[in-house]
Structure formats: structure tokens, C-alpha cells
Amino acid sequence: EVQLVESGGVVVQPGGSLRLSCAVSGFTFHDYAMHWVRQPPGRGLEWVSLISWDGGSTYSSDSVKGRFTVSRDNSRNFLYLQMSGLRGEDTAVYYCGRDSLPAPGAIDFWGRGTLVTVSS
Amino acid sequence: EIVMTQSPATLSVSPGEWATLSCRASESVSSDLAWYQQKPGQAPRLLIYGAFIRATGVPARFSGSASGTEFTLTISSLQSEDFAVYYCQQYHNFWTFGQGTKVEI
Fold first, then answer.
1. pLDDT tens for residues B75-100?
2. A66 CB near a chain B CB, below 8 Å?
3. Of the candidates B19, B5, B4, which has an alpha carbon nearest to the alpha carbon of residue B103?
4. What are phi and psi of A59, to 5 degrees?
5. Shortest Cα distance from B78 to chain A (angstroms)?
6. What does the pLDDT profile of chain A (120 residues) look like in tens digits?
7. According to the model, what pLDDT value does residue A94 have?
8. Cross-chain residue pair B91–A104, CB shorter than 8 Å
9. Min CA distance, B81 vs chain A (Å)?
């Protein structure tokens, strides 16, 4: 069974840093690109970052570029999102998701999310 | 950035009726379009990819179609478990989501 479990979400002060983790199981992690998507409370989905299967390519939305860094450890089956310079508008549930092989770019499995709250 | 615009924001329907949800792309995305369902407190679920291909395990009452930059998700004979928020997403040029359509009773 495919499982993605996010962790690391906490309350953090503006300007602070945080690292989110996503533990995956049930599939061959290094075969797949992976996404981070976020959802502010009561609002819609916003794509954040993507990392290729080998970590050699990464992409980030303009809203987080230069502040967030996506990485992965294929030996441990973990995906990470290093967040710095956090702002109030970064408050959201952060989901990790598996990139679809039949349709690269679509997200076929999602974790349950972890809540990041940026507040003083 | 490709902007995805969904309409309507809210769709009120009765169980057993059909629902038609629209998604418009600001420029061509070919068929690189996915639909997701999200219920309260849950993660999104992939329903459709490639504009009209149902994901594994998705009931046949969900169907997708496309005409140029206009995409449609149709839910025939709505079941109680179908009341949720639906998002479209393009993955043709980077990745962007629409703002969602809430299907309510």
C-alpha cells in the first residue's frame, strides 16, 4: 500500500525556519518525482515544489523561490522541504505527493498533510 | 504562469442529478489536465488525468472532456459521497491549480 506521511509542521515565528519531512513506503521511491503542495486554511491548493527522481532537478513556485528548498534521500525513502524566511502567507497545510508515471505532472498519491502556522 | 479558472465556485445539486464543472486555461495546456476531489479534512484524490482518463478505482460516473482550453468534469447521478470540492490542475507548463468548485447538496 502506498503511504506518504508528512511531519514537522509547527507554529513558527515570522522570519523563522522549518524543515518538513515526508516518509514514503509501498512503492519504489527512487522511481518517482515528488511534489509539495500547500493549502492555506479554508482556501485552495497551491503547488509549491517538485523534485526529480534523482534529486538532480528541482522546481519551485515564484512565491517560495529562494526561501524553500526541496530535497530527498532515496536511501531512506524521505522527501524534505526546507523552509526559511517564513511569512504569514506561508501558513498552510503542506502535502507531499507522488508524481504520476502515466501522466508526469499529475499527483496520484497524497499524504494527509502537516500544518505550518507562521505567527508571532 | 498559466492561470486556471474554475466555474462555478459553488454548485448546488440533488443526489441522483448530474453535475457539470468547468475549468478554463489561460493558454493551451494540450491534454495535460487533471481533476482532483477533496473532502473536508482529507487530502486531495486524483480522479482524472490526461483530461479524460479515469484514475485507478474511480467510478465510471466521473468523466472528463476537453475542447481547446475548456475542460469539463461531469459527474452523472451524484452519490452522497461525491459532495466535495473539485480542483483542476494543469501540468503542461509547470503546475497550477484552479481555485476549486464546491459541489453541495
1. 999 999 999 999 999 999 999 999 99
2. no
3. B19
4. -140, 145
5. 23
6. 999 999 999 999 999 999 999 999 999 999 999 999 999 999 999 999 999 999 999 999 999 999 999 999 999 999 999 999 999 999 999 999 999 999 999 999 999 999 999 999
7. 98
8. yes
9. 19
For B23, the grid coordinates are 475549468
Contacts of B92 in chain A (CB under 8 A): 105
In chain B, the residue whose alpha carbon lies closest to the alpha carbon of A5 is B43
Amino acid of residue A108 = D
Q: Which of A45, A52, A63 to mutate to test the interface with B (most CBs of B within 10 A)?
A: A45
3-state secondary structure chain B: CCCEEEECCEEECCCCCCEEEEEEECCCCCCCEEEEEECCCCCCEEEEECCCEECCCCCCCEEEEEECCEEEEEECCCCHHHCCEEEEEECCCCCEECCCEEEEC
- Number of helices (H), then strands (E), in chain A: 0, 11
Please tell me which of the candidates B1, B95, B99 has its beta carbon nearest to residue A44.
B99
Distance of CA A109 to the CA centre of its chain: 13
Q: Which of B32, B55, B97 sits opposite A108 (nearest CB)?
A: B55
Q: Are A109 and A96 in contact (CB under 8 A)?
A: no
